[in-house]
Amino acid sequence: MITRRDLLQLTAATGAALTLPAQLLRAQTSTAVITRIIPSSGEALPVIGLGGAATFGRLARSGDLSPLRAVLTTLLGNGGTVFDTAEAYGPSEVIAGRLAQELGIETQLFWSTKVNSAKPEWGPSYPDITAEQIQNSFDRIGKSPIDLMQIHNLGDLKTQLPLIQELKEEGRVRYIGITYDTPDRNDELIQAMRDETLDFIGIDYAVDNPAAAETIFPLAQDQGIATIIYQPFGRTRLWSRVAGRQVPEWAQEFDANSWAQFFIKYVVAHPAVTVVTPATSKPANLIDNIAGGTGQLPDSAMLRRMEQFIAALPEAR
After folding, report:
1. What confidence score (pLDDT) does residue 26 get?
2. Which CATH architecture does the domain made up of 33-118+127-311 adopt?
3. CA 85/CA 36 separation, integer angstroms
4. Domain coordinates of the chain in residue numbers?
5. Do the strands 35-37 and 44-46 form a parallel or antiparallel pair, or are they unpaired?
């Protein structure tokens, strides 16, 4: 099987990911991508998507758009559909929307975007600002209805949630949700999951950050809420911990041939996980990520072994 390093070298050698032979780009994803059901509708989504933050956002700011064009087409060409973005990601949404419309793929993507968190200085005009943000997303994405509109990092649920609920009732948004990425607001997230009618939540979850499996996931399953996982690599934390190390041979028991697949398969193995959206601007990395959503997944005993293996490694300084 072609490794992440092999694909990166091929990409560098050709100078552009789009010149790679299709069979090389698909080599990591020769089996079908696993799909998961959105509980509120029964719609199936590919379990691996693409995030528009991090390197994607940085490249969007740089103006170097060829890799971003390539990574969007690579997503669709290898069984993915979900693209997750937000106004808070800088020009990510603007550039992705423009490229998708140029390529004619805006309706093929499952667009997940977010309303910014509340800011105290916005004052009494705050609902107007939220409405403006929402309209900006429609203008940038060029698709109606937008598939998923979420409130970023819990925001101001009292003010913002009724606005996006109204959009759903009007048929302008298909699904609504909330996100959070800091454990100090865990209680607020849980309360909102119990009190509000939500289609999705977006959270962090990783092999070295498994707390959601004990608290959030069981409630999501009980309430019929889909989940998006944003940080399967712990941002860059896990990459630092495994730097210079080979993936253990026993990882082949669940078809993990790279560290990206190792980390992603840990996340996907939980049945409450609907889609994972690691950010990248490199088609080769996206191929590697998508392979994490194919083939065998670790069972409960293997998950514990994976946690113990990573926990025993020195933490990054």
Report:
1. 47
2. Alpha-Beta Barrel (3.20)
3. 20
4. 33-118+127-311
5. antiparallel
